[in-house]
Structure formats: structure tokens, C-alpha cells
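Please fill in the sequence for the structure shown.

STRUCTURE ENCODING:
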């Protein structure tokens, strides 16, 4: 009997020690960290301020009355290098003929007649080093006088894909492409039918 009583007495300090330990682990302060991850923000819009999207073609020379000016607004929350400025025009067989091309370091854009569409061969002839009037009816090429971005962005032409590679910094960037007014030699003549000539410029994060 004595041994059992002693054993019971020995258990009391152990139980008390456990209770004290549990009280020692209590805290009157706790914290948790809330986190949320923000992905890259990218918004590209056509920008109308200062843009010149319509002009006339002088019948005697093929010259544009005023330079055409395309503008795009980029808003992004991070430096964004992977943007692309492309130009397409339409032929009788394809609505997406590549309209930008480069010869001797100068970039050009082809405008095609929207009603009397040129053939794909006519669009291709405008891109030749020496175009032939008889081979490019209803397609007229004009030089790109400048292509640039503000906010320290960059615009460089990729001659392999015939598109501009655009880099924008965080914030707002305006990308501007301006044509010259004089057509490429031997891409304008009486063979070009009266009507509207156009190219469509697109700025996106998708390459050709």
C-alpha cells in the first residue's frame, strides 16, 4: 500500500509540470501575413491625338497630300520588351499580305486598293529591288519616314519578319509610325485604279 501511495505522490509533480508547460506556451500576440500576387498589366490602344489616318493621293505623281501617322498607346506596370508592330494589306487572294518591307536600310509600307485588289504577285513586286510598273497595279509603296516610342522605349525593324520590335518601359508609352509622302519609284502609275488604298497597322504582343 505504501508503494502505491508513493507512486501517486510522484505523479503529482509530473502532472503539475505538464500544466505549467502548457501555460508557458501561451501567447497574447499572433500575426499572419496576407499576400496577393499581381501579374504584368498590359493595355494597348489606338491613340488618336496627333494621328493622321486619312489623306489623298495626287493623281499626277502618286504623292500623299500629307504624311500618314499611326499612333498606339501602351500602358504597362513593368518593362515590356516583347511587342511587335506589324502592317498588313490585302490582295485578291489574301487579306493578310505583309505590308512592311525593307530595301537598302529603308522601311516601306504597301497600300493596296480596297475595291480593285492587287494580286499577291503585285504586292510582292512592290517589294522587289527594282519594281516594274506593269507588275504591281493597284499596290503602291511609300517609305516609313520614322518609327519611334517615347518614355525611352525602342522601335527597331526586324528584316527577317518584316515587323518592328517594340520595347516599352513601365508607365505610358506612345508609339508613332510616320510615312513619307513620295511613292517608291515604279510602284505608282496610271495602272493604279482610282479608289481607296490602305494598309492596317497592328501593335500587339504576338509576333508574325
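FILLED IN BY: designer on duty
SEQUENCE:
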Amino acid at each position: 500500500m505504501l508503494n502505491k501511495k508513493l507512486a501517486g505522490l510522484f505523479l503529482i509533480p509530473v502532472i503539475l509540470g505538464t500544466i505549467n508547460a502548457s501555460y508557458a506556451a501561451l501567447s497574447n500576440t499572433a500575426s499572419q501575413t496576407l499576400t496577393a500576387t499581381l501579374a504584368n498589366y498590359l493595355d494597348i490602344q489606338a491613340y488618336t491625338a496627333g494621328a493622321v489616318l486619312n489623306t489623298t493621293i495626287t493623281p499626277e505623281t502618286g504623292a500623299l497630300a500629307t504624311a500618314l501617322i499611326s499612333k498606339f498607346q501602351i500602358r504597362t506596370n513593368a518593362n515590356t520588351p516583347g511587342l511587335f508592330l506589324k502592317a498588313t494589306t490585302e490582295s485578291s487572294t489574301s487579306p493578310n499580305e505583309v505590308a512592311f518591307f525593307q530595301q537598302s536600310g529603308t522601311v516601306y509600307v504597301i497600300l493596296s486598293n480596297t475595291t480593285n485588289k492587287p494580286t499577291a504577285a503585285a504586292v510582292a513586286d512592290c517589294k522587289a529591288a527594282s519594281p516594274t510598273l506593269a507588275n504591281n497595279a493597284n499596290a503602291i509603296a511609300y517609305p516609313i519616314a520614322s518609327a519611334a516610342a517615347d518614355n525611352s522605349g525602342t522601335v527597331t525593324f526586324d528584316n527577317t519578319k518584316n515587323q518592328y520590335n517594340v520595347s516599352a518601359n513601365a508607365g505610358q508609352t506612345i508609339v508613332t509610325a510616320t510615312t513619307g509622302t513620295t511613292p517608291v519609284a515604279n510602284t505608282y502609275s496610271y495602272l493604279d485604279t482610282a479608289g481607296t488604298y490602305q494598309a492596317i497597322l497592328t501593335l500587339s504582343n504576338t509576333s508574325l
